[in-house]
């Protein structure tokens, strides 16, 4: 009986240790997001990747996507209930079939310029939590530039090139037929507010008798530019 009692105590002790060890392993996880910005065109649907490593089910965990303030969430999954934040109704969601695999990536539909900026992916359970940050960059392709003769004098021309609907702020340059930059003046790009696209324009003065072909080029540094040509 004494041997049986001691053996029972040992088994109970081993089971307790195993339970504690297993519980600790489950609580240890990393939350992984991209280090480079996620780039989206305005109006498109985009996925902000976020997953647990090692692969761990988040059923029963607290998952929260937010931007600046923890309380102002984009999307909340808590107590197995899902809630969409104000301003994101019908646009933000998780992939419900992926939650058991530790995938808590956020699907953001119909991306707006105002969506650009940092996002935090918060995952917590008991006293363990992580909330890495990723960056969303939004882009918008503007219009083909329009070249107009704004002022015509006896010996000279004043040309104006304009384009609208760009984000982020584009560059505009004039080039001659040899590809040389002949920009005379470029006005600062304009936007109605910080969440609106940019409009840009530039002027060029030329001699009427130059018989020169000029090109107006507009676009961001890292994307395909639009061009317009005019022969004077």
TrEMBL record:
InterPro entries: BTN3A2-like_Ig-C, Ig-like_dom, Ig-like_dom_sf, Ig-like_fold, Ig_sub, Ig_V-set, IgSF_BTN/MOG
Organism from which the protein derives: Lepisosteus oculatus
Cellular component aspect of the GO annotation: external side of plasma membrane
Xref: PROSITE patterns: IG_LIKE
GO molecular function: signaling receptor binding
Keyword Transmembrane: yes
Lineage summary: Eukaryota, Metazoa, Chordata, Craniata, Vertebrata
PANTHER family: BUTYROPHILIN, BUTYROPHILIN-LIKE PROTEIN 9
GO biological process, one term: regulation of cytokine production
Predominant cellular place of this UniProt entry's protein: membrane
Domain Ig-like: 1-137, 145-218
Record has Transmembrane helix as a keyword: yes
Compartments it resides in: Membrane
Protein name, per record: Ig-like domain-containing protein
Keyword annotations from UniProtKB, A to Z: Disulfide bond, Immunoglobulin domain, Membrane, Transmembrane, Transmembrane helix
């Amino acid at each position: 009986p004494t041997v049986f009692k001691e053996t029972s105590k040992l088994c109970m002790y081993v089971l307790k240790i195993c339970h504690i060890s297993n519980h600790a392993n489950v609580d240890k996880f990393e939350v992984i997001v991209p280090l480079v910005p996620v780039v989206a065109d305005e109006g498109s649907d985009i996925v902000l990747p976020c997953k647990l490593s090692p692969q761990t089910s988040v059923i029963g965990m607290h998952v929260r996507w937010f931007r600046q303030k923890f309380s102002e969430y984009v999307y909340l999954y808590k107590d197995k209930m899902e809630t969409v934040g104000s301003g994101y109704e019908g646009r933000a969601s998780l992939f419900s079939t992926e939650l058991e695999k530790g995938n808590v990536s956020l699907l953001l539909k119909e991306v707006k310029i105002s969506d650009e900026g940092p996002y935090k992916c918060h995952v917590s359970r008991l006293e363990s939590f992580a909330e890495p940050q990723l960056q969303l960059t939004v882009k918008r392709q503007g219009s083909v530039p329009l070249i107009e003769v704004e002022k015509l004098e006896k010996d000279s021309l004043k040309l104006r090139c304009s384009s609208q609907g760009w984000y982020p702020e584009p560059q505009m340059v004039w080039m001659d037929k040899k590809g040389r930059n002949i920009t005379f003046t470029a006005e600062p790009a304009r936007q109605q507010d910080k969440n609106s696209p940019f409009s840009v324009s530039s002027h060029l003065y030329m001699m009427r008798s130059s018989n020169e072909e000029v090109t107006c080029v507009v676009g961001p540094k890292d994307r395909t530019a639009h061009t317009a040509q005019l022969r004077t």
